[in-house]
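Sorry to interrupt, but I need a hand with the structure work. Could you add the entry underneath, on a fresh line?
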Amino acid sequence: MMFFDRAMLAMGNILFLIGLTLIIGPQKTALFFARRQKWKGTAAFAAGISLILLRWPFFGFLIELYGILVLFGDFLATVAGFVGGVPVVGPVVKGVLERIGGVAGGAGGGRGELPV
């Protein structure tokens, strides 16, 4: 039940955005979220954060999850390639991530390009 705590989700969102900005820089972060092909994901992510702050954490989380998949779906194939080397669970996780990445990435998904 603590997973959908409004304060924890809001703090996680803020820390996610701060971490992304620290890793790739403020200008590239702004350019990433402002790209024309990423508008749908950016809008869903922002709407999810807004719903969480308006005390609808479950629905906000679901909409935010959709936005993250749209924004970072192309990158899941790269993550799947890295995770595939982990013993025992690697092949299972790799298959799931490749399937999700193909669906979220659209027609050109699974290219393994960085999101920036």
In short: The radius of gyration is 15 Å. The chain is about 70% helix and 0% strand.
